[in-house]
């Protein structure tokens, strides 16, 4: 019995080491072919060069899920991410929840993952925001605005309580969007203004604030002036300020027609 126990423990140790080694190998491939290769090129107009870098990385190891997601091949990438979650849930379950929310846009599945993260590990952070922030985005996309409002209100309250945590314009933006969807125009404007105080060129905040002003019956001149300013800022690249907006359009991110 003792030998069997030792054998199982030894195999588990080897298996765990193999998983750690694989993750380190994956990280090295991401650094070589995404960070040091693809990101030398502009994602908007040098897509062939960008894609060539990712393809090289995937030829080296096709199981690197992050490269598939940067290629917008979500279904392919998810099978490898699911394996990563199976082997190391604490590390990869939050990332999978984030991917489902922002990239794959499978919002109900994202909520399941992120709520499990909170239950198991607390309301930790991924990509600068707590898990509850992404659940809030999911609820916005599922038209469950009251649930989204509560989550964003709590998030912003926590920011105020924690003086070491900086106010975040994106947090204010989605809090205001929840108010906007609930037709709380005055509240939404006040919160959009908080986002704009931190990030004055925030085109998306200006656009939705303009709609709120219109709903409140403000003058066409005031509304059109603000929309014009939003278009100018958007043309200069000032939009939702999140790292992954280079790959995916975030919910409520305004794309102006030229």
Kindly describe this structure.
With 258 residues, this protein is mainly alpha-helical. The protein has three domains: 1-87, no CATH class; 88-154, no CATH class; 167-258, Tetratricopeptide repeat domain (Serine Threonine Protein Phosphatase 5, Tetratricopeptide repeat), CATH 1.25.40. 71% of the residues lie in helices and 2% in strands. The protein is built from twelve helices and two strands; from the N terminus they run ααααααββαααααα. It has helices at 2-35, 47-60, 65-70, 74-87, 89-104, 107-121, 131-141, 145-161, 169-181, 185-198, 203-215, 220-235, and strands at residues 125-126, 129-130. The protein has a two-stranded antiparallel sheet. Helix 1 runs antiparallel to helix 2 (47-60). The chain is globular and about 60 Å long.
How do the helices and strands line up, and which of them pair or pack?
Layout (H helix, E strand, L loop, with lengths): L1 H34 L11 H14 L4 H6 L3 H14 L1 H16 L2 H15 L3 E2 L2 E2 H11 L3 H17 L7 H13 L3 H14 L4 H13 L4 H16 L23
Antiparallel strand pairs: 1-2
Helix pairs in contact: 1-2, 4-5, 5-6, 5-7, 6-7, 7-8, 7-9, 8-9, 9-10, 10-11, 11-12
Which strands sit side by side, in order, in the main sheet?
A: 1-2
How many β strands by DSSP? 2
Q: What is the terminal-to-terminal distance?
A: 73 Å
Structural class: mainly alpha
Q: What share of residues is helical?
A: over 70%
CATH topology assignment of the largest domain: Serine Threonine Protein Phosphatase 5, Tetratricopeptide repeat
Assembly context of the chains: single chain
What would you report as the Rg, rounded to the nearest angstrom?
A: 21 Å
Which residue ranges are poorly predicted, with pLDDT under 50 across at least 5 consecutive positions? 1-21
Tell me the domain tally. 3
What's the SSE pattern?
Answer: HHHHHHEEHHHHHH
CATH architecture type of the largest domain: Alpha Horseshoe
């Amino acid at each position: 019995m003792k030998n069997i126990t030792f054998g199982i423990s030894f195999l588990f140790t080897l298996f765990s080491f193999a998983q750690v080694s694989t993750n380190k190998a994956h990280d090295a491939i991401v650094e070589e072919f995404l960070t040091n290769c693809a990101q030398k090129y502009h994602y908007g107009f040098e897509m062939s060069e960008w894609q060539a870098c990712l393809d090289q990385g995937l030829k080296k190891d096709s199981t690197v899920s992050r490269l598939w997601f940067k290629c917008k091949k979500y279904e392919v990438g998810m099978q490898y991410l699911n394996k990563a979650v199976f082997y190391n849930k604490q590390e990869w379950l939050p990332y999978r929840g984030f991917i489902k929310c922002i990239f794959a846009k499978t919002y109900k599945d994202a909520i399941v993952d992120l709520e499990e993260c909170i239950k198991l590990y607390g309301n930790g952070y991924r990509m600068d925001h707590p898990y509850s922030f992404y659940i809030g985005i999911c609820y916005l996309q599922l038209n469950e605005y009251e649930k989204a409002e509560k989550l964003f209100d709590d998030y912003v309250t926590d920011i105020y309580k924690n003086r070491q945590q900086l106010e975040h314009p994106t947090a204010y933006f989605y809090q205001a969007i929840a108010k906007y969807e609930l037709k709380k125009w005055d509240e939404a404007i006040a919160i959009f203004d908080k986002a704009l105080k931190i990030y004055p060129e925030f085109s998306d905040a200006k656009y939705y604030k303009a709609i709120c002003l219109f709903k409140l019956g403000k003058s066409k001149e005031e509304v059109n002036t603000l929309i014009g300013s939003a278009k100018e800022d958007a043309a200069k690249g000032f939009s939702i300020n999140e790292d992954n907006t280079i790959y995916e359009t975030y919910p409520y991110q305004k794309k102006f027609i030229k």
